[in-house]
Amino acid sequence: MQPHADNLLLDRAKRFRGKVILALNKVDKLPKTKLLPILDAFQKEFPFSAMGLSPLLRRWLRRVDEEILKVLPEADPYFPEDQVTDQPERFLASEIIREKAIALTYHEVPHALAVIVDKWKKNQISSALK
To answer: How far is CA 8 from CA 4, 11, 15, 98, in A?
Structure first.
């Protein structure tokens, strides 16, 4: 463990007014005999809803999801159910064009590639997708 990083984490957690979840990555790399004292040390410093986290262990991911859902307040949605992004169609179209241009220039990787949409016809994408 890195004491300085741990102290920064703990200081930030102590200043936060809500509930705090501690999620550790790559716990599958440590034997339980080493992992449990680490979790215990964090738990003694701050009342985390502590758990290990490893993408390889789905049960840990389920536990993290469950803990997050326990502490999140229920509220009305910010956006309509059918809205998948807050970005305008014009921006999304430029990103698709940029992605395709990068894919076509894989032999000569550009350092930067920008797409500027000069002309936009409303509903052109929607009708093309149908």
So the answer is: 6, 5, 11, 39
Q: Among all chains, which residue has been given the structure tokens 């509903």?
A: 123
DSSP string, 40-79: HHHHHHS----EE--TT-HHHHHHHHHHHHHHSPP---SS
Structure confidence by residue, pLDDT tens digits, 37-49: 888 888 888 888 7
Give pLDDT < 50 ranges for the chain: 1
For 8, the token pair is 């920064």
Contacts of 47 (CB under 8 A, 6+ apart): none
Residue 94 token pair: 């430029």
- Residues, the chain: 130
